[in-house]
TrEMBL record:
GO terms for cellular component: endoplasmic reticulum membrane; Golgi membrane. Keywords: Membrane, Transmembrane, Transmembrane helix, Transport. This is Adenosine 3'-phospho 5'-phosphosulfate transporter 1. Belongs to the nucleotide-sugar transporter family. SLC35B subfamily.
Amino acid sequence: MFRSSQDVMLCLLVASLFFFLYLVMQVVKDILNQSSFEESWVLRLCVNFAGYSCILVPGFVAYKFVKATEYLDRTDLGCFGRFVRLCLGDADPDLMKTIESSAPTLTQVRSPSKKALQLLYCFGGLQTSYLIWGVLQEKIMTQEYRNSSDETDSFKDSEFLVFVNRVLAFAFSGIHLIFTRHPRHNCPLYKYVYCSLTNILSSWCQYEALKFVTFPTQVLVKASKIIPVMVMGKIVSKKKFEYYEYVTAVMMSVGMVMFLLNNSGEHKGVKETTVSGIVLMAMYMAMDSFTSNWQSKLFSTYNMSSVQMMCGVNLFSCLFTAVSLLSQGLLFNSFLFMTKFPSFAMDCFLLSLCSATGQLFIFYTISTFGPVVFVIITTLRQVFAILLSCIIYNHHLSTFAVFGVSIIFIALFLRIYCNQRLRNIRKQQSRGSSQG
């Protein structure tokens, strides 16, 4: 009886908070519809975050209720209680030891020809997925669509693009988990909330920034995100960095300054970089840096697979964006835009497909060849993405801007070389000490 009463209280608490916040969002939406809401990305971001609070606030209250009432300490939890423990419980230390002891120790021997084919497969998959994704991303956010009735309109809702990307990524990762073997999952689901939230916010900033900056500018800013990753690593994980990492970070900063100062909007087809675009890209880098550092922390703590991480993060991303879009009444409008402009629906599907398959190629490349090869392929992809965007959308790069781009990519390759050289030196030193 006591167990059932606690279950009912928890359900009522979560449900009442959710519907109360949802109704508040409806009132806010009606007020904002009478103002210039669509013209301000700051207001849109605040409203999006208010939509996420429909899940965040009830979840936080449920967590506090479970801890305060010692809900999970009972032995007669039942089906609902086991679900609550899956979401809000702590990791099982005995299972953690089992996972660590059962980690695979065998390495697969591959012939040189097979390694070459696998490398070609990874290179082609990553380049194809993300180059098409970049072209479609710029097209959706910057170009007008035309239908058979000769009507034209442009799509402006960045959050819907995040939503469809995450839905397909969640479906892909879920199917992958069903048909392949992975370690036993021991991470409380609420741990994914932090990186899921920053992940969707960083993606939203990335899409929204294309309204204010050119795609080449965005690619270069993303290539230089090592700087905020280092800063966030210091804050979140207390990491230490080598001197060459600071040198290459400074080189990237100089290259970015040269590119931004000399790639002005004087030529046809070039969009001028605005303060809003710079702020949005700075927010993107900060959020994305936290996401990667938090995911690294979860990997090291719970020994999960990359696909399990992909599935967990995208699960909450789907929930956050779906509730936010529904509370703002934008989900139906976006689907209506799809029916009105079928070419947009196709672009949207291909964008999501490339994003999801690209994530799977990332995991496969890192697990097969390691992070160094993956970084080299990604760096080359960024060069190709800039060239492709300039050719398709007529972006002009001044000579000084090209020099800034060169400095950034020289710094990237120098960083890769130094990382690999330092790793080899440490391996030789460890072998020497073990032999001695």
